[in-house]
Amino acid sequence: MSKNKDTVLSIALVTPSIVAVGIFIYGFIAWSVRVSLSNWKGLLPDYSWAGLKNYINLFSDPRFLVDVRNTVVFTVIFVLGCLAVGLALAIMLDQNLKGEAFFRSLFLFPMAISFIVTGVVWRWLMNPAAGDRMSGFNLLFSNLGLDFLVNSWHLTPRWGMAAIALAAIWQMSGYTMALYLGGLRAIPDEIREAARVDGASEFRIYTNIIFPLLRPVTLSAMIILGHISLKVFDLIIAIAGKQLPLDVPAIYMWQTTFDGYFFSRGAAIGILLLLSVAVLIIPYLYYTLRSEAEI
Q1: Can you say whether residue 150 is alpha, beta or left, with left for phi > 0 and alpha for psi between -120 and 50 degrees?
Q2: Best exposed site among 14, 75, 94, 237 by fewest CB in 10 Å?
């Protein structure tokens, strides 16, 4: 009797959360799918069936193709930059560095800041203005006699997204460092000592032993960072505002839906973003569950 009572109590406790998730997440996703398949354009709802027209039109829309390119550039630079910087910081902290707790907190601190705050700060640091209005990095380079490094940053015609990615790398590399540091600390010291006894150099220990053992951490970091990069919105708005050369699907979705009242197309962009995130998350979840089952 007591066991049945505990079961009923447990179900009663989790039921409100299940209902809330079902309504406010999966219910809204289903509603967005329905809107994306309609002809709703304007303030008055129009649920007449349009099929896949909105999705097909997106892939022939020059602006959306620019958005996809910008997202790819941002994602590649952001993910690789965070992995490289995070791994380097983790290896440095793993060397029994004095003041490790201080440096660990220092590197993690940017993660506690929102992308809006990061964007405001980096907008000043990457100020593309010249002459008397020069500030930030350009002013520093000019004073150091490194004029060849002075540039337009996010206003650079082709690689402006790379400059935006620098701000994101600064913010999230500390988080990547924490992931890698946890992975390094989980590797038994006996493995390293055995390799040293066999005459392996530190370089060979890292390349042949440590890095392969860190592959699950790298995969997790790539999934998390990729998920963040696909939804980037506030960082770009804070640094550069709404500019077509720096446009991404999230900004296009916002303008299409709330500025242009083209709700069906905005919903279609949102669903495509959801699917792009699912392409990353679902294989990762499958891999994780299969690994746990094998253990």
Answers
A1: beta
A2: 14
CA-based Rg of the chain, rounded to a whole angstrom? 24
The Cβ of residue 28 has, within 10 Å, a number of other Cβ atoms equal to: 11
Ranges under pLDDT 50 in the chain = none
**Distance separating alpha carbons of residues 227 and 23, to the nearest angstrom:** 23
Contact 79, 225 (CB under 8 A): yes
Please tell me the predicted confidence (pLDDT) of residue 97. 79
| C-beta atoms surrounding 19 within 10 Å | 11
- Single-letter code of the amino acid located at 79: V
The single-letter DSSP state of residue 113 is S
pLDDT digits (tens, 9 = 90+) for 214-253: 998 998 899 889 989 988 999 999 998 888 888 999 999 9
CA 270, CA 259: separation in Å to the nearest integer? 15
> Which phi and psi angles does 232 have, rounded to 5°?
-60, 135
pLDDT at 39: 93
pTM of the model: 0.87
What are 49's two structure tokens?
């069936």
Q: Does domain 61-294 have CATH number 3.40.190.10?
A: no
Q: What is the DSSP letter of 260?
A: S
* Nearest by Cα to 70 from 235, 267, 197: 235
Percent of the chain with pLDDT strictly greater than 90: 51
The CA-based angle 187-189-193, given to 5 degrees, is 130
DSSP-based three-state secondary structure for 212: helix
Residue 139 token pair: 């002013």
Burial of 155 (0-12, 13-18, 19+ CB in 10 A): middle
Q: What is the dihedral of CA 150, 152, 153, 158, to 10 degrees?
A: -120
Number of C-beta neighbours around residue 261 at 10 A: 13
